[in-house]
Design brief:
InterPro entries: DNA_S_mod_dnd_assoc_4. With 156 residues, this protein is mainly alpha-helical. The protein has one domain. It contains six helices and two strands. The chain starts with 5 loop residues before the first strand and ends in a 10-residue tail after the last helix.
């Protein structure tokens, strides 16, 4: 289970997470590790890809204090993923000690799944921002094209 109060990153994804940050002279599209992890978790959830972490990164990025997510309002995403996964609103209760750990674990696994997707999509890319924009654009148009074209909406 997750350490209470910290969001962990899999060691095999640590370099990708660092590369996606714009700080320290980087050119990544995200400002903080928390931004990267939330984006990855949303991507993992969209594709229903939840992957256990395995070995945890102890250095950059080390486990990220949960306060960084709360300050940005990302705790809502953590909670929504937990409720969606468990189908149990009681999961938000602070009465049970391990609920926070379980919520974090679900979030971490979706983030890890999303990072796997990003690893594949960004392979060979020079400009991560441009590649992510293209990826998101193709996802958007792919969703639109999946709807069956229906002429009846043009008939009055």
């Amino acid at each position: 289970m997750a350490e209470t109060g910290r969001i962990r990153v899999a060691k095999d994804k640590a370099d990708l997470v660092k590369a996606l940050i714009s700080s320290d002279g980087g050119t990544g599209p995200f400002q903080t590790f928390a931004d990267v992890i939330v984006f990855a978790a949303a991507l993992g959830a969209k594709h229903k890809k939840r992957v256990p972490l395995g070995e945890i990164s102890k250095r950059e990025p080390s486990p990220i204090p949960q306060e960084q997510f709360i300050v940005r309002g990302y705790d809502t995403v953590i909670n929504l993923l937990a409720i969606t996964e468990t189908q149990d609103i009681k999961f938000l209760s602070f009465q049970e000690e391990n609920n926070n750990e379980r919520r974090n674990s679900i979030f971490e696994e979706y983030a890890n799944g999303g990072l796997e997707i990003l690893q594949t999509e960004l392979r060979g890319a020079v400009d991560y921002s441009e590649r992510i924009l293209l990826f998101l654009s193709s996802e958007r148009f792919q969703d639109d094209s999946e709807e069956e074209f229906n002429l009846s909406r043009f008939i009055s």
